[in-house]
Design brief:
Layout lengths: L1 H23 E5 L13 E6 L13 E5 L5 E8 L4 E5 L2 E4 L2 E2 L1 E12 L2 E13 L2 E7 L4 H4 L4 E2 L4 E5 L9 H4 L2 E2 L3 E11 L15
Length: about 200
């Protein structure tokens, strides 16, 4: 009788654990290079589902948000409501202040056997958030924007691979209601097992 009770208890515990996991968490496979060097193609992200429906969105957070065509994008929140923001010569300005970027060497990545070379910069977005971004050169469409004031309940998102990212420079502001999930960590990587357990949201 005791063995039967223990077996039932174990079964219920496992069931509740699995149910809780799928209720509170979700996984995302990354196919693109738009968030290099911090998130790479082949990375599988574990995210907290609907975290931002009840929690603040912080400048510098990497988030999952819905697009107008009901797709899912993974980008970094750069601008928050009320901020004035523009990009000039690849340099980011927020509220008339240039965001500090410190050169940090070169980055090489192979995509479909093609070698891609980038400059790495450490970007200090605010006192609590520093991270690496990539720059591939000077491109009119990615290195220059007009000055914008972010309206209430909207945010401005960029990819960390600044010259190869479809983000707010092209798709516009991101609605607060479309920002859903928080990145927890890389739980699997099909190309690089050493990346398992890395939290891309962690500041340098």
């Amino acid at each position: 009788m005791i063995k039967k009770i223990i077996a039932i208890f174990i079964f219920v515990f496992i069931f509740l654990t699995i149910f809780s996991f799928f209720f509170f968490f979700q996984t995302y496979y990354i196919p693109s290079i738009s968030m290099l060097p911090n998130i790479k193609p082949g990375d599988n992200l574990l995210v907290q589902k609907n975290y931002y429906l009840k929690n603040d969105i912080n400048q510098g957070d990497i988030v999952v948000f819905k697009t107008k065509d009901d797709g899912d994008y993974v980008k970094r929140i750069i601008g928050t409501p009320g901020d004035m923001l523009w990009i000039r010569n690849g340099k980011l300005f927020i509220n008339k202040k240039e965001i500090v970027q410190i050169y940090n060497g070169r980055f090489m990545y192979y995509e479909d056997k093609k070698r891609l070379l980038y400059d790495i910069y450490i970007e200090k977005l605010n006192e609590n958030k520093m991270y690496k971004v990539l720059d591939q050169g000077s491109y009119e469409e990615t290195d220059f924007t007009k000055a914008l004031i972010i309206p209430d309940n909207y945010f401005y998102a960029l990819g960390d691979n600044r010259d190869t990212s479809l983000d707010s420079r092209f798709t516009g502001f991101v609605s607060r209601s479309d920002i859903l999930h928080k990145i927890s960590f890389i739980f699997w990587s099909s190309l690089d097992r050493s990346r398992i357990g890395i939290n891309p949201n962690k500041s340098l």
